[in-house]
């Protein structure tokens, strides 16, 4: 398969600008891979479709307000800085994206918070990418929390709002994993009340951590998919959570991966003994057709942008033609697309 096989057009009016409330009222297209059947339900129906002992695996990464607006020294030109990855906490080194990039060169200083501190550009990494060193002496995340904005995706075609700090965070977010620039979007469909309802039925939750990084903003650029290289992202599966998943596997229960990031983490931690291992490290696993999934039996995911790793992973799980049949039906029936949109449940 080629990259051009994963292109489609979605009407702009179907791109969800805000999440729906209540969360479990979001529509959910249910796809049966064995029968080819497609049914239309809501997220709330997930409780009826699962049985006690089934295991829902979620990503507990936490999004931080990584978009900063600063001003360039001397010219006072406004510069947007998107924090991608902290390289060295002690030296306050970060990989960032800057806009407009043509105005930002090595040696430039960009000031923030009414000129109280700055970052200095020390290297170019890509066309828009820079490595910078911050002058802030205390905990940088504290001031980022105060002045930063959630880095909502460009396709929303609006400015970040105060409520985005709530909208753009899952109920599973853990302060220990404050590192992502975007949410695991499938996890946005869960409210705490819905989680409690599922747990009361006997459905288990396991938590993994996968940092959502620069890859969410980038399209794949190579037509030959075998030549694409994923960005490496840190992930962790603790012993406790590996045991929850392995117990469900041993009892032949369903493993429901909530989002492509979870599916990647699970498949990266697979053992030949049909189990998940406790693990912590980096993954650059690129899942595309015709990958053979070993752990995941159900995939809860969103409707994804074309030419992205997420739509390729969904295609690998559902089958490309079956997935695009569902996408076509979703467009016809006015489903809501992308991060704040509706969901697919594929099994």
Low-pLDDT windows of residues: none
What is the CATH C level class of the largest domain, in words?
Answer: Alpha Beta
Structural class, by secondary structure, is alpha+beta
Looking at the structure, the CATH topology of the largest domain is QueA-like
List the helices and strands in order.
EEHEEEEEEEEHHEHEEHEHEEEEHHE
Distance between the termini: 22 Å
Shape: globular
CATH superfamily of the largest domain: QueA-like
CATH architecture of the largest domain: 3-Layer(aba) Sandwich
Tally of strands: 19
Query: Total helix count?
Result: 8
Number of structurally distinct domains: 2
Mean pLDDT: 95
Provide the β-strand percentage band: 25-35%
Task: Report what the structure shows.
By secondary structure, the protein is α+β, with helices and mostly antiparallel strands. The chain has two domains: 242 residues, QueA-like (3-Layer(aba) Sandwich), CATH 3.40.1780; 82 residues, Beta Barrel (Thrombin, subunit H), CATH 2.40.10.240. Helices cover 20% and strands 28% of the residues. The chain has eight helices and 19 strands. The strands form four sheets. A nine-stranded mixed beta sheet has the order 2-1-19-18-14-3-12-13-17. Strands 5-6-7-10-9-8 form a six-stranded antiparallel barrel. It has a two-stranded parallel ribbon with strand order 4-11. Helix 7 packs across helix 8. It starts with 26 loop residues before the first strand and ends with a strand.
